[in-house]
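Can't paste images in this forum, so I'm doing it all in text. The chain is below; anyone willing to post the predicted structure tokens underneath?
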Amino acid sequence: MAGAVDETGDRRKGSLVTVDTPAETRELHAWLRREPELRGGVRLLESPPPTGALGPVAEAVQILAGAPVAAVAGVVIAWLRYRTSDVKITVKRPDGTEVQISASRIKTLNAEQTRAVTAEIERALSGERPLAAPEEKPGG
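Text version of the structure:
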């Protein structure tokens, strides 16, 4: 991601959120941009198109310093609930620390488990030490 910049050429610091594919990265960015509180606080980082490709490759969503972490976490959870497959989210903080959150069967989580995943995303973005993932209970 060394050559990646956002759509405005800005290189400001913030946490980077990556997901499994460039298409999912673009989709998550679009969801985040729909939230009025976040419009100025998220950027799409792209790398130049590979030879023969028609456009740049979405690599990460940058959550700029000062963006409301709770709003970001809420949108990420809503996006995860919309997903039909498992997904892995990686948050890389400005200090280089990386936190991975795997979301499996997110639609089947109960309210307590959903709050735990939301809190984990908030901790990852805010720089707090992550906790262990919540255990799944049969019948969710």
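The two ends are 38 Å apart (CA to CA). The chain has three helices and six strands.
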